Amino acid sequence: MSTQFPDIKEKIGAAVTYLTLGIWGLVWLLISRKQYHDQKDFVRFHCMQSILVGMLYMFIPQGLAILISLVIQIISFIPGSSVIVHWLHVIHGIVQSGVHYGLLVLILYCVIFSFYGRFTNIPWISQIINRMLR
Question: Which residues of 30-51 are buried (b: 16+ CB within 10 A; e: fewer)?
């Protein structure tokens, strides 16, 4: 990335983009007074990454819920499988909570790093964003 140092307004704006799950980042990129290439890499990086993290936060738990409910529906056709279905519901609740809390920790990690004016390094996501900024 570049050697530009973000000011306090950009640090707070980057943190807010994560707290709004990327909505503020999208707004910032669309109606910013500066041209896209005139914005600092810090701002563009965190805005784009917050949009992807927000999409993950919304779609991963929903996809997981659909997949597990499909498995539960298929297993419920088997006679006498009510105990298995009950435990699958329990496991689903635990996994769903773990995914939600894990993604919340990821968002908190990104917020803290953006307050410090640093780039976060999330495997795959940060690499995608770095390729988009080149």
Answer: eeeeeeeeebbebbbbbbbbbb
